[in-house]
Amino acid sequence: MAAERITIHGKTFEKTIPEAEILRAVETVAERITADYKEKNPVFVVVLSGAFVFASDLLRMIKFPCQIAFTKLKSYAGLESTGKIIEQLPVSEDISGRHVVIIEDIVETGYSMQFLKEVLTDKHPASMEICAFSFKPDKLRVKGLEVKYVGMHLPDAFIVGYGLDYNHQGRQLRDIYSLVKD
After folding, report:
1. Cα–Cα distance list, 11 to 3, 20, 108, 115, 147 (Å)
2. Is the distance from CB of 102 to CB of 129 less than 8 angstroms?
3. CA–CA dist 19, 121 (Å, integer)
4. Alpha helix (H) ranges present in 38-130?
5. Regarding beta strands 5-8 and 127-135, do their DSSP bridges make them parallel or antiparallel, or are they unpaired?
6. 13 with 179: CB under 8 angstroms?
7. Which pLDDT score, from 0 to 100, does residue 84 have?
8. Is the torsion defined by CA of 170, 174, 176, 181 positive or negative?
9. 132 with 146: CB under 8 angstroms?
10. Max alpha carbon distance in the chain (Å)?
11. In terms of DSSP H, where are the helices of 8-107?
12. What ranges in 62-131 are assigned the alpha helix state H?
């Protein structure tokens, strides 16, 4: 059984979403994607490092032909977004004429997804949608950014677990923990 409270780099986090609830949300997203893409052989572009846990669970629930590609973006330092997005690993697969679903761990301001959509648009996909495990609509700053597939809408709290980290720690946690305010 997972601890109710954990400490990472001197900060306390409290369990707020248990693994069972997370997996139910992932299954719901997988069902929606299956309904929309089962005949389209899409390319799932997984944003590393945070989305790898969500993508792993989600893609094992997908029961139709698909391709998986990876990209890596960096925009965070500690608890805050730097506001600058760096593409550390570009998508190397040919997505021209393909249906693309971007898999992201969390969408907050939307700047990273806006950046990635612009980069991928230059590769001429047939269509492109965003799938995020978690979404914080109150923090969204990019007008018109649509996140079509969302596992969970979350309040404005700093969270770790299920792929999300605090200074490279906590990604492996099965549950989601929220930062306890001092």
Report:
1. 15, 25, 21, 31, 30
2. yes
3. 35
4. 52-61, 111-121
5. unpaired
6. yes
7. 82
8. negative
9. no
10. 50
11. 19-37, 52-61
12. 111-121
Helix axes 52-61, 19-37, angle to 10 degrees: 60
The CA dihedral of 45, 35, 146, 50, to the nearest 10 degrees, is -40
Classified as helix, coil or strand, 28 is helix
Structure confidence at residue 85 as a pLDDT band (50, 70, 90)? confident
Residue where the block lists tokens 């969970």: 152
Q: Output b/e per residue, 141-171; b: 16+ Cβ within 10 A.
A: eeeeeebebbbbebeeebbbbbbbbbeeebb
The answer to whether 139 and 109 are in contact (CB under 8 A) is yes
Asked if 105 and 81 count as a contact pair (C-beta separation under 8 A), the reply is no
C-beta of residue 86 within 8 angstroms of C-beta of residue 75: yes
Residue 75 pLDDT greater than 80, yes or no: no
In the numeric block, which tokens belong to residue 65? Answer: 């032909």
- Which of these, 105, 124, 120, 129, lies nearest to 46 by C-alpha position? 105
Determine the residue type at 13.
F
* Cα 34 from Cα 17, distance rounded (Å): 25
Q: Which residue has the tokens 């979403």?
A: 17
pLDDT, tens digit (0-9, with 9 covering 90-100), for 14-37:
999 999 999 999 999 999 999 999
Q: Tokens 């549950």 sit at which residue?
A: 175
